[in-house]
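Appendix B, record 7
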Amino acid sequence: MSRIVPALAWSDVFSFDDYGALLQLVSNAIIAAGVLGIVGGLIGVFIMARDMAFAVHGVSELAFAGAAIALLAGASVVAGSLVGAVAAALLIGLLGSKARDRSSIVGVLMPFGLGIGILCLSLYEGRSANRFSLLTGQIVSVTTPDLGWLIGISLFVLVVLLLVWNPLRFDSLDPASAAARGVPSTAISLVFMLLLGLVVSVAVHIIGSLLVLALLITPAAAAMKVVHGPVAVPLLSALFGFVSAVGGILLAIAGTLPVSPYITTISFAIYVACRVIAWSRERAVRHRLRRGSLA
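Structure tokens (predicted):
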């Protein structure tokens, strides 16, 4: 009787042979992922507060299109994704002042960006890994010059985000009251969309354009389940983003799979754990209330 051999062995997913040498090869990606995880976790709090998860996906598709055009033209992929993401963010910010308008604009931009990107990739005759990395990320694609750009963009976003933190938070939680108090809502929205575009352009190189939500949405959504307050939520979200990004790369080094499945799995596991904690707390509160009413 013939023995059934599994199609996928454990060694195909994880192999820690020469792990130290491989770790040095992807040191740039680890640094970039750590910075991105922190910044993405912080800006994700405002993405959730402003209900703009769908807009993130729209911006990522234009970042993918810009990166694909740059790849086909032999230009800098970082610069291409940056131009595409910023253009999409500004279009959404300028034309989508209302939630309904924003959703329709994103719905128009997403298929356009994805179509342009796929067209450019189909015309590209270089290495297939370069094409695949734009969609799912590639840990070895972060060169030293790229690292400088990625860190510079991330630090710029972090500084500007901290400068506009209070008015942005006020406008995100209660836009009507913020406008009545003299907060320039239009300018704040445009600044936020610009920062969002910059962060997405960085995320495309780490996790790919299809899965940026795992670093810009999931950490903040998880943090909001277990903590409250203007300080605790951003700090925990940044920690979750850092753990997801860096942990995913550290696991990906030992495997043959793209980096994105590891990052998204860690991020999702954190979210599930936070949901369970929140559910346990709610159950305990209901139990105490029930006992108090019976007493």
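Remarks on this record: The chain has a mean pLDDT of 82. The two ends are 68 Å apart (CA to CA).
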